[in-house]
Design a protein that fits this description.
Structural class: alpha/beta
Strand order of the largest sheet: 5-6-7-8-9
Number of helices: 19
Shape: elongated
Distance between the termini: 32 Å
Radius of gyration: 26 Å
Helix content: 40-55%
Strand content: 5-15%
Number of strands: 9
């Protein structure tokens, strides 16, 4: 069974996150990012600017309905638009989110009546609602934006699936906003299907995604309201009181919005994974080298944390990091690093072909001397999606009897277990710094040395 399976892993498609223009969806959990409409507003792309206008106009149409005393219709559209399960963005662990309730919808829609400037001109950045209404945050901003852009996302998804050969099936799309009718409609389209939920999947451009929207309450509170607006620093009002204050002081909020617009050059999309800089990699390596082997003063936990960050960065983008996970084996807690094998490198393709490794597992052992039990623990893990290739990351070279044990495993079961030591990590960081070659070549070198020791 795959760990944190993604759409391309299920279909056995060998592309990396770096190579595609969309965030690769997980099958059993959400991507921990959100669509930020501000990125579309500040984009140099005319298409993105036009799509931002679509979001604003669609949201402002709710105000038009309010003026025509169609509060019920406006509330229904807003409630239905407040959750977009097809994109799988956010922090849900089961792909099922919840819509806002009538009370929250009414509170949002009341802005079109209670704030004169909004009544007259509507919103340029609808994510401002976070500064006026409680219980509204980045997930709602993202989902509402996705639903108003769903027609574009359907086309984008089909285009990307054709380009990367992702299988599609006929599916029913719910809550698709029809910009001519200003209504949410249903439509059939050929889209990828999540094999776990049997529901359609929509792909989202990476360039639109951030962990936190550029306009958000926390930034307003910490970076503006407390510093620039509120005089009594010893008696700061509560969140609800600040939201009420904002409703009555529209110009204060607009000053904050203008400040965010002026600093828009600092607003960048957040990658799903960001490598640590070389200075941090060297620092991690130095910390690893200085650590004693064993468990004294939590040395084993520190070793695992440092190696995890170092390896995830050094091997990117050829190996996408899947997860660091702990498991119990014979009463001992064992830390593993799991990587997706995207076959984006000749050596990785060989590992996939020869050992059926769709994911590569690395087991961390902060011990002075690897013992037979350590090898056996990893050996028992090399089944199913992990195939028959594994890596032990430890402090020192394997003792001769243990190395012979790994040779015997290859001879008898065609399972390959290689070891990376402190010296290998030093070499990987050196290569990482030079940028002339890839640190993955260090693993390839260790593998070739191992194979030369195996009987032909």
């Amino acid at each position: 069974m795959l760990i944190r399976p993604r759409l391309n892993d299920f279909h056995d498609l060998p592309f990396t996150q770096e190579e595609v223009d969309f965030a690769i969806p997980f099958l059993d959990e959400d991507i921990p990012l959100y669509l930020d409409p501000f990125l579309l507003w500040k984009s140099p792309s005319m298409q993105d600017n036009a799509l931002h206008a679509i979001i604003s106009n669609s949201f402002n149409h709710l105000g038009h309905l309010i003026k025509k005393n169609k509060e019920k219709e406006a509330a229904e559209i807003l409630i239905r638009a407040s959750e977009c399960t097809e994109v799988g963005l956010g922090t849900s662990a089961n792909k099922n989110g919840m819509r806002i309730g009538e009370k929250t919808a009414t509170s949002i829609l009341s802005l079109f009546q209670s704030v004169p400037q909004i009544t007259e001109g509507g919103f340029t950045h609808f994510e401002e609602i976070q500064l006026y209404v409680d219980q509204i945050s980045k997930d709602r901003v993202s989902d509402i934006s996705c639903n108003f852009l769903k027609s574009f996302l359907v086309d984008f998804t089909i285009q990307q699936c054709d380009k990367h050969k992702i299988p599609m099936e006929k599916a029913r799309i719910h809550d698709l906003y029809d910009h001519k009718k200003n209504q949410l409609v249903e439509e059939d389209a050929y889209l990828p299907i999540n094999p776990e939920t049997k529901k359609p999947v929509l792909l989202v451009p990476k360039r639109w995604l951030r962990y936190i929207p550029w306009i958000n309450y926390e930034d307003y509170f910490d970076g503006y309201f407390v510093k620039e607006v509120w005089q009594d620093k010893n008696n700061v009002p509560s969140r609800v009181e600040i939201l009420e204050y904002n409703r009555k002081n529209y110009d204060v909020v607009q000053n904050f919005i203008r400040m965010k617009e002026k600093t828009s050059e600092d607003c960048k999309n957040d990658p799903l994974f960001k490598s640590i800089p070389i200075t941090s990699a060297k620092r991690k390596l130095n910390e690893i080298i200085k650590l004693p082997s064993g468990k004294t003063d939590n040395a084993d936990k520190k070793y695992e944390d440092h190696v995890c960050q170092l390896m995830a960065s050094a091997l990117y983008p050829h190996l996408d990091f899947a997860q660091a996970q702990s498991r119990t084996d014979s009463g001992a807690l064992i830390r593993d690093l799991i990587f997706y094998n995207n076959r984006s490198y000749d050596f990785l393709k060989d590992i996939y072909d020869d050992y059926k490794s769709r994911q590569i597992v690395m087991e961390l052992k902060n011990v002075a001397k690897v013992e037979r039990d350590h090898v056996n623990q990893l050996n028992r893990y090399l089944t199913d999606s992990f195939g028959s290739f594994g890596i032990l990351i430890t402090r020192n070279p394997l003792p001769k009897p243990i190395f012979k044990n790994t040779i015997d495993l290859w001879s008898g079961q065609r399972k390959c277990i290689i070891a990376l030591t402190d010296e290998d990590l030093k070499l990987m960081v050196s290569v990482y710094e030079s940028k002339q070659r890839h640190p993955l070549e260090v693993i390839k070198k260790k593998y070739l040395e191992f194979r030369r020791s195996c009987p032909s």
